[in-house]
């Protein structure tokens, strides 16, 4: 499986990722292309595309938070026709390897999952737990979306475990979202 990553806007690579992105996330649950472009212009994210036999099979948008030393996975999806083949787990492992090389100070990965107790959300949580992530108890409510979320985290070093405090993890996630949705750079993107 080929793993391609860019920190700059790449029209061709985005076109490959966008097909999977649109398939996996409804319009109300994804950032617009304009917002994603702006994120790249400000150096806020990285795009990952995984290809199998030359065809895009999975995608992810990530952001490294240097304040917390965590990689935030904003979106990750496997093409529906390729699901159930272990690709998602391989993507997570490759993200861990990639960020460990790109940011040696990174000590973990954090994601947010929907908190509502549905069968679909339970499957997502089960997937992340099978990849080594821990689910936190704290339920976070954003002011700008009706859904509630919980943080899940994967620490890289057992000797330096990540916090189990979901409120603390959401500081990193919220800082990322605030920077992503900010309309102008306004001097600094540090929140």
TrEMBL record:
Keywords: Acyltransferase, Transferase. It holds the Pfam family Acetyltransf_1. PROSITE patterns: GNAT. Its EC number is 2.3.1.-. The keyword Acetylation does not apply. CDD domains: NAT_SF. Residues 4-155 form the N-acetyltransferase domain. Signal peptide: none annotated. GO terms for molecular function: acyltransferase activity. It is an enzyme of class 2 (transferase). This is GNAT family N-acetyltransferase.
